[in-house]
Amino acid sequence: MKYSQVTTENIRHLATICGQEHVFSGSAIHEDYKHDEMTIYGKFAPEVVVEVTSADQVPHVMRYAYERMIPVTPRGSGTGLCGGAVALYGGILLSLAKLDAVLEWDEENFTVTVEPGVLLMKLAEEAIKRDLMYPPDPGEKSATIGGNVMTNAGGMRAIKYGVTRDYVLGMTVVLPDGSVIELGGKVVKNSSGYSLKDLLIGSEGTLGIVTKLVLKLIPLPPFSMSLLVPFDDLKLCFDTVPKIIQSGTGPTAVEFMQRQVIEAAEEYLALHFPHKSAQAYLLLTFDGRSEREIEHTYQRAAEICLENGATDVFISDTEERQASIWKARGAFLEAIKTSTSDMDECDVVIPRTLLSEYMRFVDALEHKYAVRIRSFGHAGDGNLHIYLCRDDLDSRIWQEKRLEIMEELYSLATKLGGQISGEHGVGHAKQAYLKTSLGPEALYLMKGIKKVFDPQNILNPGKVCFSEKAFDPSEAAI
Ligand SMILES: Cc1cc2nc3c(=O)[nH]c(=O)nc-3n(C[C@H](O)[C@H](O)[C@H](O)COP(=O)(O)OP(=O)(O)OC[C@H]3O[C@@H](n4cnc5c(N)ncnc54)[C@H](O)[C@@H]3O)c2cc1C
Questions:
Q1: Are the CB atoms for 378 and 348 separated by under 8 Å?
Q2: CB under 8 Å to 322, separation ≥6 — which residues?
């Protein structure tokens, strides 16, 4: 695919659409726009960064780019973890971050209508003020809702409430040629043909640009409490997870953490974690209308943990105690990142009954390759975040070992009936593994869908199902 280079005339024209002060080129482009949160996946400079400040500008930018074969990469906050929001082929990096208005709270229909640049933390806080809850709760609260929808973000509360997809009722989308479509709306159900809305969710900005979203809300459960559960044996820890789910106690979160990751978070945050001498921990949360309502369920869950090998159960029922544990949980990724020179991530999801088998395999890989591996994750969903740490490995050995370990991790996940990404997406970094796990027929359909939406392949090219070989950072541009 031959793309046009962005010219001075193109930049001038984009400034007439979006305003001179919102168009940046050359040295005016901030370094942050060249990568996302996983810097190992390379730095790629766009030729021009365009910030839209009104949804009406998006169709004009797209039509202009489409007619001139200029690639466009949509971007929210750039907190993605698979290189989805980087401009692999230069062109326009289209920032949606300033489209950040909450347009309507409809408390009778339990919906909120937002622009895509609204931050998750802002939406969550505003909802609470109205005694409402927006349930999806991914770890990075500075992500945009548009980015969350385009990656189908998961997070801590998925085990009880589901993922972002479950809360998107409607959307306005600008297609690559600049035409605009409305999908879904303030309706509870919809069987009207193929669900294009659901196709767009998780499409990582490759099919269209979302400029408005109608999201579902629920009444706020005003009371919540957490249990921190230490285990001296990783297998006992993981084998307890399906038993908790099976018990019908309905936890809001079931998170897994390794002792070493807690230590890294303590050091990173200069914070004292309530307990850290065990091998592994489960962090459970329960919510409801009152303590009385959930008393029985959390006590039953605590009993199940103790019956299955937990060495203790610590109850956190005050806001401060819960906040300190969850603050540490929220810092795990940054803490691991700070502890090493470089890292790569694997975000597999597998049936939760196979978690202990999978983690045994991860441990074996750590010894086999002599590469430090750290893990945590949403155990209740069977979703593990596994980090390979480069430490002082030289570049060639790191690259070889990294690819071999990743290959083994993804192969086993696929063999066990899992998926290569539970919530972070494919971006440009995970395409080779997607190809293997999908198989040729499903990949053919995915490529066909992309072609129908974007026949010129100008929208976020190089992502999801574009390339079939493993990403090599040494080939990365700039
Ligand atoms: C510390 C940390 C913790 C995290 N925890 C979680 C977690 O628990 N669960 C989870 O799921 N993720 C998590 N993430 C990953 C990340 O926050 C999510 O992927 C998030 O959804 C990305 O949002 P963003 O606004 O930063 O999007 P970006 O990174 O800017 O973009 C992500 C993708 O969406 C596309 N895109 C963005 N906006 C639009 C739009 N308006 N229209 C079309 N396409 C668009 C981009 O092209 C790109 O492909 C975490 C990240 C970090 C750094």
A1: no
A2: 224, 225, 226, 285, 316
Give the residue, by CA position, lying nearest to ligand 1 atom 2.
140
Over the stretch 323-338, which tens digit does the pLDDT of each residue have? 888 888 889 999 999 9
Q: Are residues 230 and 328 in the same domain?
A: yes
Q: What is the amino acid identity at position 56?
A: D
Backbone angles phi, psi at 152, to 5 degrees: 45, 55
At residue 335, what is the residue type? A
76 Cβ below 6 A of ligand 1: yes
Length of the chain: 478
| Residue with token string 């996946």 | 41
Q: Is residue 290 part of a domain?
A: yes
Residues of the domain holding 252 = 223-334
**Per-residue DSSP letters for 433-453?**
HHHHHH-HHHHHHHHHHHHHH
Identify whether residues 270 and 164 lie together within a single domain. Answer: no
pTM as predicted = 0.96
Q: Is 47 in the pocket of ligand 1 (CB under 6 A)?
A: no
The CATH number that applies at residue 215 is 3.30.465.10
Say if ligand 1 is within 6 A of residue 136 CB: no
Q: Which parts of 347-414 are beta strand (E)?
A: 372-378, 383-389
Which has the closest alpha carbon to 4: 118, 108, 89? 89
